[in-house]
């Protein structure tokens, strides 16, 4: 065995993956979940190398990499330090114990930054990963965070990093997996979503610029939530892509034709609420309530821009600088500032709201898309309709039966997916 580098930390106490050295007896080479002669899913001879190989898949996605590394690291360290056994020897019962441990990581001096782990205590001070004071936890995990950790670790085990070869995947809980694996964990539960809406409603409107900020924030959050749009779609599409058509029953329904990820087109139901909020936003800018066909006005405008004569621009005409869309980064900044504002309101209340504030501070624009999908499913919107709203409907289809399905999807979405300002 080669000599470890001088800056390596010798197990067995919690240390970051990049400095962790595991004794041969615990490195998983002979883990009980390995099947001799099985086909390796990851080319790694021990548990640590298997985790590193798995994480390498996400190297180009920093946020995902950090989240996945955190959960894999915590489980590996718990297995080594708390149980004194390799990761690839964990049993189903061990993993159930680990779920309980996440809710109260003890002893706190070993696992928690600052050595204190009290429910509701919030996040401790963050230390660099190379600092001797670094610990894997900042405090107990909330039930939602435990569910998220479970989902990530089941991804790890399904990839083979928990067993390396042969046998069945070591799932944390097969029953729990069936329930939570399809669920998106980066979302706002209804109570927290209401806090965000309340925060937007409380934004100052005592000056023209403040009113413009309020109307834009309200419209952007409406668009991302009711439309289920990605942030890039909010910046890359125009108001002229709203259109109206009559359904088979004679009812006029509005739609938004979205050019999305991978240059794929889809139809998003423009519900009555969405169209009301669009009209509200446009009128706050001095524009007509409804867009004209092929209008070049961006879906969200910079402050101080009213799109000039864009609302009456003839088909095919260009609106000029006044119709320049906000960048993806600018839209992200607006969303993050609203979340920060809502988090500050929660933090000022103290108590359990401090932990909810910490969650909001982690939220991004994509959480609104996840939240919309989760809330639609919770309200029993047909999952096929949720799927199509989020990117699987085709604009090239003219089959009458699929048209009927579109109408049903619009009605289902309109009736059950609401923002309720």
TrEMBL record:
Name of the protein described by the UniProt record: Tyrosine-type recombinase/integrase
């Amino acid at each position: 065995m080669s000599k470890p580098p001088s800056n390596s930390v010798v197990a067995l106490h919690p240390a970051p993956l990049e400095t962790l050295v595991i004794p041969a007896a615990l490195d998983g080479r002979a883990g009980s979940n390995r099947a001799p002669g099985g086909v390796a899913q990851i080319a790694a001879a021990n548990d640590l190398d298997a985790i590193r190989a798995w994480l390498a898949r996400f190297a180009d996605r920093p946020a995902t990499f950090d989240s996945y590394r955190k959960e894999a690291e915590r489980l590996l360290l718990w297995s080594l330090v708390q149980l004194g056994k390799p990761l690839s020897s964990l049993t189903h019962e061990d993993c159930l114990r680990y779920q309980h441990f996440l809710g109260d990581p003890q002893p706190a001096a070993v696992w928690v930054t600052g050595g204190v782990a009290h429910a509701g205590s919030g996040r401790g001070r963050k230390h660099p990963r190379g600092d001797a004071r670094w610990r894997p936890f900042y405090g107990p995990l909330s039930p939602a965070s435990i569910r998220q950790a479970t989902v990530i670790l089941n991804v790890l085990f399904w990839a083979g990093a928990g067993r390396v070869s042969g046998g069945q995947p070591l799932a944390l809980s097969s029953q729990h997996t069936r329930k939570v694996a399809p669920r998106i964990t980066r979302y706002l539960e209804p109570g927290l979503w209401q806090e965000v809406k309340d925060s937007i409603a409380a934004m100052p409107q005592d000056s023209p610029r403040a009113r413009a900020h309020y109307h834009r924030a309200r419209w952007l959050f409406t668009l991302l939530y009711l439309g289920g749009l990605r942030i890039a779609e909010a910046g890359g599409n125009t108001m002229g892509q709203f259109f109206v058509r009559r359904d088979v029953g004679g009812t006029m329904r509005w739609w938004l034709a979205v050019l999305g990820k991978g240059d794929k087109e889809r139809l998003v139901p423009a519900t009555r609420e969405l169209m009301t909020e669009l009209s509200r936003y446009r009128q706050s800018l001095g524009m007509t309530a409804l867009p004209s066909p092929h209008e070049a006005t961006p879906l969200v405008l910079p402050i101080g821009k009213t799109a000039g004569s864009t609302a009456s621009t003839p088909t095919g005409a260009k609106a000029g600088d006044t119709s320049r869309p906000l960048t993806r980064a600018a839209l992200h900044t607006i969303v993050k500032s609203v979340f920060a504002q809502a988090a500050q309101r929660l933090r000022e209340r103290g108590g359990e709201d401090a932990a909810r504030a910490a969650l909001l501070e982690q939220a991004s624009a994509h959480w609104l898309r996840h939240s919309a999908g989760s809330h639609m499913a919770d309200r029993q919107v047909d999952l096929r309709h949720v799927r199509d709203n989020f990117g699987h409907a085709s604009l090239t289809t003219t089959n009458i039966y699929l048209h009927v399905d579109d109408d049903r999807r619009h009605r289902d979405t309109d009736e059950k997916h609401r923002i309720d300002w």
